[in-house]
Amino acid sequence: MALMNDAALCPVENSGSGNARAGTTLRAVLREATETPHRRLDRHFADMTGACDAGGYHRFIRMNHACHAAIEPVLAGIGQRLDDRLITRREPLLVSLAEDMRAMDLDPVLAEPLILDRPDLPEAAGLIYVLDGSRLGARFIHREFIAKDLARRWPGISTAYLASAAGPDAFGDRMAALSDRVVSQTARRRAIAAAQAAFAVFEAAFAGTTRHPEAATS
């Protein structure tokens, strides 16, 4: 199952590590540079929808809630400072994740803080790639939940985040617009560093879900 997951849905262009040469989109550069953490997170939840209980799904929601809570304020701060509608017109999904946390009585995970040095548009691009790109995987999971009738198999689950992620969004158009503005090798290296930092937050949050089991039981 592909979860996080621009990497699995789109082929990787032969771009070289962060090389901003002509014809290589920012999305492709970020996809290649983050392929390893993408795949690692995928493996954590590969059997989630086939499990006999909702334990893996609880960890998935707790991880995402912690990471969105850590990353979205940083991204919002960049958008407000730059007064850039490309950033500020996004629809964060933290409210939906909080709804799932409350409905399933899950304990929050304390995420590692995301620390970026003087973040600007390149950093925003890297963070958007990770957060908004993860909705592609959530959309796929949502379809599996419906196909496997997991609401019946796992009574008491809440899928507000998955349902919100399944709605239309402008991820592809937003990344294309950012690709036209984040073009130099230096800027793209900064975007890569921000995306990798965001994935590190996800990895730390996942580790937190295994150290602190959810309050709800299935």
Walk me through what this model shows:
The protein has 218 residues and is mainly alpha-helical. The chain has a single domain (26-40, 50-210), classed as Heme oxygenase-like (Heme Oxygenase, Chain A). It has 11 helices and no strands. It has helices at residues 6-9, 26-33, 35-44, 55-82, 85-88, 94-103, 121-147, 150-153, 160-165, 171-181, 185-211. Helix 4 (55-82) packs antiparallel against helix 7 (121-147) and helix 4 packs antiparallel against helix 11. Residues 11-22 have low confidence and may be disordered. InterPro entries: Haem_Oase-like_multi-hlx. This is Biliverdin-producing heme oxygenase. It comes from Aurantimonas aggregata.
Summary tags:
218 residues; mainly alpha; Heme Oxygenase, Chain A
Topology at a glance:
Layout: H1 6-9, H2 26-33, H3 35-44, H4 55-82, H5 85-88, H6 94-103, H7 121-147, H8 150-153, H9 160-165, H10 171-181, H11 185-211
Helix pairs in contact: 2-11, 3-11, 4-6, 4-7, 4-11, 7-11
Q: Which architecture per CATH? A: Up-down Bundle
- What's the domain count? 1
- Please give the radius of gyration in angstroms: 17 Å
CATH class reads: Mainly Alpha
The computed structural class is: mainly alpha
Q: Could you state the CATH homologous superfamily?
A: Heme oxygenase-like
Order of helices and strands: HHHHHHHHHHH
Basic shape: globular
Tally of extended strands?
Answer: 0
Q: Determine the strand fraction and express it as a percent band.
A: under 5%
Let me know the average pLDDT. Answer: 89
Uncertain spans, ≥5 residues at pLDDT below 50? Answer: 11-22
- How large is the count of helical segments? 11
DSSP helix fraction: 55-70%
Main sheet makeup: none
Distance between the termini: 22 Å
What is the fold named in CATH at topology level? Heme Oxygenase, Chain A
Protein name: Biliverdin-producing heme oxygenase
